[in-house]
Amino acid sequence: MAGTSVKTSKELMKKLSAISGKGADEAAKRAVYVGAGYMAERIKESLRSVVSENATGDLENSLGIAPIQLDKQGNWGTKIGFSGYDRKGVANPMKARILESGSSKQRKRPFLAPAVKKYRKIAEEKMNNEAEIIIESYLK
Predict the structure, then answer these.
(1) Average pLDDT of the residues in 93-104
(2) pTM higher than 0.85 for the full model?
(3) Number of H helices and number of E strands within the chain?
(4) Residue of 133, 111, 135 whose CA lies nearest to 39
(5) Separation CA 24–CA 96 (nearest Å)
(6) In 3-state terms, what secondary structure has residue 120?
(7) CA–CA dist 22, 11 (Å, integer)
(8) With 80 as the cut, is the pLDDT of residue 33 above it?
(9) Distance CA 9, CA 38 (A)
(10) What is the spatial distance between Cα 139 and Cα 128, in angstroms, rounded to a whole number?
């Protein structure tokens, strides 16, 4: 699973506290959803660049976003990861780990870490922009 956290600006935090309650939760959840969706698409692109043309697509199709939840610290978040099995009964999370890290029989072909590193700032910007849009709609 890929994980990341986003730091919000003091200005955005002030606006969030001004709308508090349901509006703040909606803004946070929507921002997380937008950022996770963007990052999931970039991970899929990165995955396509390291697998062969003959790949079945089972691994790519198994990439998903977990439901957005509130953690113990009071932060909204989600995880992006692989689930299920391919046509041959091989666990997709294991296939992804082997692609990313390699094994004794296969060289590593990182796709997850490079995508997260390359697109993290853009995802954060998209999340902040989405939160701003929702917050502004509540403040009007």
Answers:
(1) 95
(2) no
(3) 5, 4
(4) 111
(5) 35
(6) helix
(7) 19
(8) yes
(9) 21
(10) 16
Non-local CB neighbours of 44 within 8 Å, separated by 6+ positions: 60, 63
Picking from 48, 45, 41, 39, the residue whose alpha carbon sits closest to that of residue 79 is 39
Q: At what angle do helices 22-50 and 112-139 cross, to 10 degrees?
A: 150
As given in the structure block, the two tokens for residue 62 are 């198994």
If one counts every other C-beta atom within 10 angstroms of the C-beta of residue 140, the result is: 5
Q: Is the pLDDT of residue 117 over 70?
A: yes
Instruction: Read off the tokens for 86.
Output: 């391919």
Distances (CA, A) of 121 to 40, 69, 78, 83, 134: 14, 22, 17, 26, 20
Look up residue 55 and give its amino acid.
Answer: A
Three-state secondary-structure class, residue 110: coil
Give me the sign of the Cα torsion angle 53, 107, 83, 70: negative
CA geometry: angle at 93 spanning 84 and 104, to 5°? 135
- Give the separation between CA 82 and CA 94, rounded to whole angstroms: 9
What one-character DSSP code corresponds to residue 51? S
Q: Is pLDDT at 105 greater than 70 in this prediction? A: yes
39 residue type, one letter: M
- Contact by Cβ (8 Å): 128, 8: yes
